[in-house]
Amino acid sequence: MRLVALIPVFNHGERVGMVVDALRALDLPVILVDDGSNDATARVLTALAAKTAEITLLQHAENRGKGAAVSTGIEYAARQLQASHVLQIDADAQHDLAALPDFLQAAARQPEAAIVACPRYDESVPRGRLYGRYLTHVWVWINTLSLHIVDSMCGLRVYPLAAVLPLLPALARARRMSFDVEILVRLDWADTPIVNLPVWVRYPENSRSHFRPWHDNLCISRMHARLFFGMLRRMPHLLCRRWRK
């Protein structure tokens, strides 16, 4: 098992160093994917990558979206670093970094599984964001005909690359925020085990979200519609596996 950490970055230069330090403390190689960040963040990422050969910096010339950044990092991890697993984590340090060893241990126990964070929120969470994501959870449960995936939007997870790499062509349209959701649905369709781990999530003061309400909600709605018809084609298999259990 060779696990590599992956951080998609778009303009979180003031906090990404904390995340990198936590990952390096666990002796993990780190891939930073600069998704067209501003000059200040680009300078921070360049400085981080200059510290050690264990930190790789990949760059998109312009912003292509989180899904595109994650795909770039996954493909590099598999082809250039011979990784078997990728730990994906957001750059803004909102996830409890002390929980990272739990994710590594869970991946070691079940290397065939996707290890997915199930967030626990404190009072800092914006209520509108909390209620909005619940609607996506309901659609995910419908589109998988299961409750395997507790939370499909949290950006902390471990992917088994043997299961993920064959799915990337089908995710070509999920270039932005919909990627995190769609890849988990497709992993579940492929019978990849899903392990849900709780993690505390705190929204820092003055934090900037890259979620664009109108555009991203439209993309996510289209994704749910596409996945719903995909579920209908797979319904016999999804129902049969429920009966087998």
How many helical stretches? 8
- Describe the sheet with the most strands: 7 strands, mixed
Q: How does the helix and strand content classify structurally?
A: alpha/beta
Strands of the biggest beta sheet: in what spatial order?
Answer: 3-2-1-4-6-5-7
Bin the helical content.
40-55%
What is the total tally of β strands?
Answer: 7
Mean pLDDT over the full residue set: 91
Question: End-to-end span in angstroms?
Answer: 29 Å
Order of helices and strands: EHEHEHEHEHEHHEH
Shape label: globular
Model regions low in confidence, pLDDT < 50 over at least 5 residues: none
Q: What is the CA-atom radius of gyration, in angstroms?
A: 17 Å
Portion in beta strands: 15-25%
